[in-house]
Amino acid sequence: MTAAGRAASAARRVIRGQAVRSESPSLTRWVLLVWLVGLIAVAANHRGQIFFDTKLGVDIDPAGFYARLWQLWNPLEWLGTLQDQYIGYAAPMAPFYLAGELLKVPVWITERLWLSLLIAVGFGGLVKLATALRIGSERSRVAAGLAFALWPTFTIVIGSTSAGILPGLLVPWAVLPLVTAARGGSLPRAAARSGVAVLLMGGVNATSTLYVLILPAAFIMTMLRGRRRVTLALWWGGAVGLATSWWVVPLLLQARYAFNFLPYVEQSATTTGTMSAAAFLRGAGNWTAYLNLGQPWLSAGWAMIADPIAICAGALAAGAGLLGLTRRDLPGSCWLRLSLGAAALIALAGYPGPLGGLFHHGVDQLLDAGLAPLRSVYKVEPVAAAVIALGIAHALAIRTTRRAGAGDPVRAAMRRRLAVAAALALVVIGLADPYLTGHVLNPGSFTAVPRYWYRVAAFLGVHSPRAPALVVPGAAHGTYLWGEPVDEPLEPLASSPWVALGLVPYGGAGSQLLLSSLEGAISSGERVPGLAATLQRSGVRYVVVRNDLSPGAFGYTPPEAVHRTLSSSGFRRIAAFGPLITGAQLDPGAPQ
Questions:
Q1: How far apart are CA 155 and CA 298, in angstroms?
Q2: Which letter does DSSP use for residue 380 in this model?
Q3: Which among 291, 305, 285, 302 is positioned nearest to 351, based on CA atoms?
Q4: How far apart are CA 73 and CA 308, in angstroms?
Q5: Using an 8 Å Cβ cutoff, are 305 and 311 in contact?
Q6: Tens digits of per-residue pLDDT, 422-453?
């Protein structure tokens, strides 16, 4: 190499180093700005009130919830059962809420800090990944990062089950270290750093984590060659196994010994029926977004599938991403296209409509049988979200560069820039629609769980520390006059056993049949001669009658009917916890 060549090469290295160093502060500022705007947006929604986010106990009593994580057996609920992936909250969600509790931060503020952090982490990870892959320009990467953080896949559920979107928002961080390995970096170090990102995905939903691992696995398959590919695959597989072992082992024990409740919940016809090709590309295939029981089950989901602006924004963003993916000069194109194809195959294989799976009947049968844990196919959408966002970054940069280099007149170039800016504004506003209209958080927020529920828990803890209490009337979901905690209030509050009829038979078919028959008898409003004896044989000592269920709740039973049945069937009221909760016990003097 000549002296001039060496000088030019050194200059390029210096310029490249300066670009990287200058980009880091810029990205930091953008991440902080996105976090701040996200915090303001979610804080403005239901200001001062708690909303249900994944698990009520994590929100209102993280210390108690954290203390109960480590035992697989749960003797307090469902007449005894194995805990359903409770250990998955051990990191990072429960520690975050625990820190808020220790710092005396109000619960509603902790919730908003958590959501805004998720938005910023997703944005920053996508921008850093695009930068490492040299996809797009600095501005186009920012636009792609915003699209990714606001993608309907995440927006639909961020205000109700935020732990479920952790794997999707963190998957760019799991791929990022592998980019360094593909360019000659340390393979063990890259695998370990990727494993840390997988660790922080938590273990609340194993399927969500499994699906997003398609992206880093496909990267290793396509972006490395020879022995380095095999070596990195082994290191990475070991790191992922270690990062997930803390929740995989309990999950395997649960699968071996717990009651299989999957046949009693949503079936594949429901989970695949909303996953059309268009919905998949827009990130709007989640079946819960379409659920309407008199009012939308997820207000954010309904906005993303029913609001024309949100639909147009998602379609426009998906189109831009696909445009970028068709370009031959897209870095990592083979990896990105393979990942999107794999995600589409999983999502659409069971869809019965146009452009769906050719063998959808057989696929649906498998998803209702041996593959039942994988049937919520919308959980693969984060893979498509990341790929399409990277395609957006490339499409915006390529189109701008090509036009500018063609010698266009100033006014024509200005018009094009204005058109692109208007389209970007439409996309961002449309994708952020639930944040801007106050629908991003689950409906039914509340100031606090009423104090009388704490008194109920304290009473049962003293008077019935080992015998289960029956809570009636049963409720499909926790919809009360004071709010919608979704989970039963006694779940985080009680230190003694309790049981109530719910939709999912976590305790097994036998206990579910028993509870169903008891619920039917108690809700009849008539004398039931064998009721007291049945409860005695079942070990139930107290009956808690909740009068604060909302009359608008699905399957609502008037508490007056419950009181008539109990009073005429040999029970007497022994305690009242405010006007809305009463406790009953078998009357020894009553005829059996």
A1: 10
A2: G
A3: 285
A4: 47
A5: yes
A6: 888 889 999 999 999 999 999 899 999 999 99
For residues 137 and 397, the answer to whether their CB atoms sit within 8 Å is: yes
71: left (phi over 0), alpha (psi -120 to 50) or beta: beta
Alpha-carbon span 196 to 433, nearest angstrom? 33
Task: Label residues 91-129 b or e (16+ Cβ within 10 Å = b).
Answer: bbbbeebbebbeeeeebbebbbbbbbbbbbbbbbbbbbb
Closest alpha carbon to 340 in 386, 295, 296: 386
pTM of the model: 0.91
The DSSP bridge pattern shows strands 581-586 and 542-546 to be: antiparallel
Contacts of 106 (CB under 8 A, 6+ apart): none
pLDDT for position 586: 60
Return the DSSP state at 483.
E
Q: What angle do CA 571, 573, 575 make, to 5 degrees?
A: 145
Q: 562-579 burial by CB neighbour count: b if 16+ within 10 A, else e?
A: bbbbbeebbbeeebebee
Phi, psi (degrees; rounded to nearest 5) at 571: -120, 155
Question: The tokens of 515 are what?
Answer: 């509870």
The pLDDT of residue 582: 67
Helix (H, G, I), strand (E, B) or coil at 515: helix
Structure tokens at 155: 């927006």
Integer Cα distance of 217 and 235 in angstroms:
12
State yes or no: pLDDT of 216 exceeds 70: yes
CA torsion through residues 410, 411, 416, 422, sign? positive
d(CA 43, CA 99): 19
Q: How far apart are CA 56 and CA 60, in angstroms?
A: 6
Average pLDDT over residues 290-300: 88
Supply the pLDDT for residue 556. 87
Q: How far is CA 471 from CA 259, 440, 502, in A?
A: 22, 32, 11
